[in-house]
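Known limitations

Files may contain more than one protein. Parsers should not assume a single record per file. Below, a two-record file is shown to illustrate correct handling: read the sequence, read the token line, then continue until end of file.
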Amino acid sequence: MSDPVSPVHALLVVDMQTAFVSGPQAVPDAARVLERTKDLLDRARTAGALVVHLQNDGPEGGPDEPGTPGWELYLPVVEGPREVVIRKTEDDGFHGTPLAELLTGAGVRALAVCGVMSEMCVSTTARTALELDYRVVMPHDAHATYDVPAAAGISAAVPAAMASRAAEWALGDEIEIVARAVDVPFGTVPGQAADAVIEGRAVRLRRAVRGDAERFREILGHPAVARWWGDAHSEAAEACDPPENIRAYAIEYEGTVVGLIQSCEEPTPEYRSAGLDIAVDAHRHGRGIGGDALHTLARHLFEVAGHHRLTIDPAADNAGAIRLYRRLGFRPVGLMRQYERRPDGTLRDGLLMDLLADELVAPGRS
């Protein structure tokens, strides 16, 4: 009996597009690969692993020409922070795409690869992952290709199954070939912080990753939010790669990232406390998201992180934010004159507010 396979933390599903796995142009083993890939997807999602669907943009007139029926992904995608689609134009799923950045941001170092074609996009993507020092597992029954036609004076036709096996062999000793997809286990990233995901009443706070940057820029760049924040690009970048004392979270609501919230912790024992900051998508205001997110993080900082006092420092003229913070139990401490320099060079007053552990109030609607 072979040794059990160690868990992987991401699943790369390569080019499972309609033209390649259905209809007259499907690979010979399409039914098997579809069944195995569905099983891998189900178990990866259940385990909370990262799922990445690679979708090839083929040439004009090709079976995977963008926008054509054959180009569409055949299996349903549950898009969200833990399941994404990345389009590509080369065999290598890393070339010219944010795949490496996404995996790094999620802390992934071990992944499984499945899909089509074995000797092209699947093996090329797997090879680059190995070169980037990822641990790569390839389930033998979850990738496939076409028969290789006979070539006069060179060889007879090569059955698809043999071509797939040769593709595995060519990847060398570092690749982990597993006979059955069902034997590939999934898990979360080892050592992932206990606060990687914090569940609220209706929101879910998830530690921000680099793949969140574009969405954060959208949120912070809206005029109704930007007036209270700095440059959207720099703020989003810092939230996705914060200093050691800052924890940044994506706020998820109904499966979508709708904001970001941060805590900045003062570790000195004599003054231990944490400051909060939050931005919510302007199109989602009035749904209780801000209050729920603040209450969720505040409760975590009090009950899990062991803080006894939190602070928040809205602009003194941000009346809506101040009302929300008061409802949660924050109390004004004092006006901080000319506290913040705006991008246009003007200075704005801030209001320091604080909250003690026994003062936290469950949120209403924000």
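...continuing to the second record:
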Amino acid sequence: MLAALGLVIALAWGISIAMLISLLHVGPSTSWRTGLSSLGDTLVKTLPAEWVGRQDDVATRAPPRREEVPRIGQEQPVPSEPGGLLTAMVLNTVELAIVGILMWWAVVVSLRPLRSLSEDLARRRVFDSEPLQVKQVPDELRPLILAFNSLLARVDTAMRAERQFIADAAHELRTPLAALHVQTEVALRAEALKGKDDALRKLLDISHRTHRLAEQLLDLARLDAGLHSTGLHDTDLLELAGHVISEFSVQADSRDIRLLLSGTSCMVTCDVDEMGILIRNLVDNAIQHGRDAGTVDVVCGHVMRNELQHPALEVRDDGPGVPEDERAAIFTRFYRAQSGTVRGSGIGLSLVAAIAQLHDARIETGEGVGGQGFSIRVLFPPRDPPA
């Protein structure tokens, strides 16, 4: 587009420069000046006499005959002052009209590729995220088209993740829902009271796991959407962990697991709801994969790394643990450890990793209570010392 506009400007200047060169090269004694004088007088005659107030000799002056050849020293016809102004106005108007037409042509030609792009978009089907072609687009509009293509790519990624989430959720919910159906039928068909009680206990356990799975899926969807429900606030991890642990007292007592909380107060800047989800999934994972009559210890405090003091939260158990070659993979979504005795959903630790990443925290793994079991430590960025 700039090239076309530059051509228009060059043509406009070319017309003016050609007129100036013609005047300087040929000189004032030319039919050009005579014609301009005649044009000025004609324009003046079209105006009412009271507007101009011209003299009779100016009104009746006739241009020299074509066959007359001006002699050197002979006075040339000069347009009157109103005639000269009107002539200049007419010439400027003609020049501006020519420039306007040329600019209109340049804009139409330059923007013609946009019309083809708009027609291409109108013909597209829903969820078609193919990038737009930028070969014929003007250089000035190319960054806009590239940014739009980048937006299409991000939308496509989000849509793929949404479709994958729906497929994964349907797959994960299918098994517990089928189990609920089976245990309900068993309870209905059982004739003995003990058989009904056993089926109902299994039904209650499956219902609890299904409820937990649904919560994790909803948390996962909210994190994928990038939504922060409460915003970032200064929060005491020890106090928040105490509230979360109280939710698991019944679950821990059912397996005679000691649920301990220790450490010191440590402040982090976080989304309280997301941090609650992180602690909840760490504790739930430790209880599920720990041993019966074991210990789950939640520790808050500070850890030194590279001479910096990091707020830290650690959850450890004394269960069978996780092999070192699987410790990185267990934070992948829907991954289930091959060595585990309890089959989980594969969502909890992926939520922990996602929330830690949102808070610029990193995760360390190691041995659990008493050198056995498994521990997960979340290190948060060091806080600036108070002024």
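Parsers that stop after the first record will miss the second one. For reference, the second record is described as follows. DSSP finds eleven helices and seven strands in the chain.
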